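Researcher: Quick sanity check before group meeting.
Model: Go ahead. Protein one:
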Amino acid sequence: MRYILIIGWLYVALMFSVASSNWVDGLFKFLFLGVFVTSILLWLATGSARRQRRAQKENSQSNKEI
């Protein structure tokens, strides 16, 4: 479900940038409203999974040392 929202947001950002007055303005709008916002939201949304992976990795390393 999350990926459908991301694809939809990128589509809206792309259409918004296509409707810009010139290509430089459209490129910056797509980068800042589309790519930048999406990457920040994905980073925030996957934070708990990163913490869990790190904890599992640390547990497996500590078990190997024993």
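Researcher: Fine. The other one?
Model: Protein two, sequence then structure:
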Amino acid sequence: MSKQAFDHKQRQNPLATIMRERAYSGGEKPMPQANPDPRQKKALHWVGSSKKDLMSFPVEVMRDIGAALGAAQFGEKAEGVKPWKGEAPGVMEIVEAFDGDAYRTVYAAFFEKAVYVIHAFQKKSPDGGSQTDQRDVDAICIGMRSAREDYKKRYAKEKADG
């Protein structure tokens, strides 16, 4: 592949560029790709206001969360991702800190053909502690129900035809 073709691919996929830059910064090893074939990439779906909420985050936070979601689409778990407590296995939380604030994005990666972004929020504990606000917990529960329903509707026809 010529350098020009490689550069063209980088311009077409800014998320790949961001992931590559993050993987090589600070002497870290590149992130392994279990699923590099673009045909194996899971679809990304947004639940409720999750996309709008994520877009309100600082650019640096959006970039890191975008890279983590991109990794999830290929079956990978990026740095700063941990299981979300209280839901099914495969529900993950992206944890980002920036300028003294905490940002979270919860997604479901257990679906065969898709990753669902359930909720994105700036963590603000009412008591100043580490517990997630109950409104955010409730939004995640509701979002999970919506994601499951959407997945059944969206992919039921494919399953029936397949």
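Researcher: One line on it for the slide.
Model: The beta strands are 43-46, 81-83, 91-98, 101-108, 114-123.
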